TrEMBL record:
GO CC terms, sorted: plasma membrane
Name of the molecule in the record: Glycerol uptake permease
CDD domains: MIP
Species in which this protein is naturally found: Bifidobacterium criceti
Compartments reported by the entry: Membrane
Membrane topology, record value: Multi-pass membrane protein
Amino acid sequence: MEYSLFTKLAAEFVGTAVLMIFGNGAVANVELKNTKGHNAGWINIAMGYGFGVMFPVLMFGGVSGAHINPAMTLAQAVNGMFPWNQVLPYICAQVLGAAAGQLIVYICYYPHYKETESAEAILGTFCTTDAYATRRNYFINEFVGTMLLVLGALCCLELQWGRTNYAAASIVVGFIVWGLVCSLGGPTGPGLNPARDLMPRLLHQILPIPHKGSSRWNEAWIPVVAPILGGMLGCWLFNVLFAI
């Protein structure tokens, strides 16, 4: 069944919002003061992001492809797997969905944002930063992580076994994200998705949060550019090595 473009865009909007609610919601639960999950640890965050990808892919994979990530949309378009005339509408839906999801996280954790005094903890609930404070390390990790994410997701969803059992493939994609956050997430967060970083960073800038500190715009290009380039390489590798 072929859905209308409006329905596909609605799926991308809602799917990206769900990603933000589960992912950055998990970060807020761990990092913000006086939550029930305060200091619950990195595994809690990794699970949040894994489920935050798994559920939209299960919900909307058959509607829009559940890209929920501009890097995935651009990677498929560049490699001839997605129509260029839908790229800009998809990306617009994704960035707006990311903003909506992050706003929901902010509203749900509003009292805890007011109580939290750590600017680093607050920023981490919105966007990524480099733990080693080097742009080179930031770029490398976002590039490699997104390359592996896109390659793994396409291998799951586009090869014969995934097409035959899309639900199982979607669950595996969620575990890929969970694994990536556990294994390569330490240096940067990670982002692996331009919409997941850019729009929440903008909200961090404009929302009236006490003790929030800088939004660090001087490095904001990295979690946008690096995932896009890494995604393109991951998609190219899939096409060259595995596509049939």
